[in-house]
Amino acid sequence: MNAPLPVQMLKQHLIDPEICIRCNTCEETCPVDAITHDSNNYVVNPDICNGCMACVPPCPTGSIDNWRMVLRSEAYSVQDQLGWEELPQEKSLPQAADAGVALDAPDIAAAAVSASFAVPGASIPPWSAAHPYVNLYTHKTPMTATVVGNYRVTGVDTESDIHHIVLDFGELPFPVLEGQSIGILPPGTDAQGRPHHARQYSLASPRDGERAGYNNLSLTVKRVTEDHGGVAAHGVCSNYLCDLAKNDTVQVIGPFGHTFLMPNHPRANLIMICTGTGSAPMRAMTERYRRRIDTGENGRLMLFFGARTERELPYFGPLMKLPRDFIDINLALSREAGQPKRYVQDLIRERAAPVLDLLSDRNTCIYVCGLKGMEVGVLDALRDVTMQSGQDWSILHDVLRREGRLHFETY
């Protein structure tokens, strides 16, 4: 069972183009730059990949977790993979006894443990999370949803044009959980004449629908008119979604996500840290808790929410109407007139006492969603808060990851 593989054999790492949503997470995560892409596919270079598994846990769809046993001399090249529309079938291989000199294969289990340190959060869900359905609908077999609502949730006088979009699936099944995401297929083709790939959006509604008991869900979508560097850019899918009217139809794939999930056990606490449209999964979890507020099942909720101003903070009005004894809300506004510039990590340090109280409870899970650049600041703030109490953050950080209690969804 644990015999070494022959030297001519390779357990080649491949990405399934039918499931991949081209979110770039794998390429950003790979520590040896083995993953690359063109306008068609994301692929793994067999000459560089060392099987470290660092890219596998962060992938939202599971498309990255595919392998083929091949003769090393016949490994699929980068160019082969870039031209694929689907994964190839397994090849017929020679028996190990005829394959020549043996070579120890990477210990994938050990590599996965080592790779867990390449990402800041957990690679497993909370122990009590419900089992998610994933990849029920693909690029080849998308689901059609109907738009039943499209509302701007930021001030009309601001540059931040964020919409709350509600999609209905009628009588067709589309089961989701808080923390999952879906893919939207925008119509039309790219510059090479190929159909647009899906864009991923986190759910902003709980598992029982945007409207309780209905087979619908909601998304939080920001109209993209420039990139993160401020250069003008037209977001193909975001503009398409923000311009949708009631009764329009949308092609949907997914759902995705098997780790960034809400705990289900009674009195589970949530620390939620987000910026901008990263508020979507936090809204889903908060709404799930709100709907069962009278059951006695809820733990404590603490929210750190960052935006430039109150007018650019999505869902500001509804958020302010939630009972103060239901959720501890902390707003970090970086460009509010007459107020000092503050970010979510600043507020985490300012609220060190209640944060520490929650961190000391094994029922607490932490969720971080927003731009990738916030990861370091949040981790530094949690480290500082922990060290204030005389604890070792490296030990606590490892515990939170191993127990599925610290999750990042950044982009």
UniProtKB/TrEMBL annotation:
Its EC number is 1.14.13.208. Residues 11-40, 42-69 form the 4Fe-4S ferredoxin-type domain. InterPro entries: 4Fe4S_Fe-S-bd (IPR017896), 4Fe4S_Fe_S_CS (IPR017900), Benzoyl_CoA_Oase_BoxA (IPR017634), FAD-bd_FR_type (IPR017927), Flavoprot_Pyr_Nucl_cyt_Rdtase (IPR001709), FNR (IPR015701), FNR_nucleotide-bd (IPR039261), OxRdtase_FAD/NAD-bd (IPR001433). It catalyses: benzoyl-CoA + NADPH + O2 + H(+) = 2,3-epoxy-2,3-dihydrobenzoyl-CoA + NADP(+) + H2O. It is an enzyme of class 1 (oxidoreductase). NADP(+) binds at residues 202, 222, 277, 334-335, 341, 370-371, 409. Residues 140-262 form the FAD-binding FR-type domain. Keywords: FAD, Flavoprotein, Iron, Iron-sulfur, Metal-binding, NADP, Oxidoreductase. Pfam families: Fer4_10, NAD_binding_1. Signal peptide: none annotated. Homodimer. This is Benzoyl-CoA oxygenase component A.
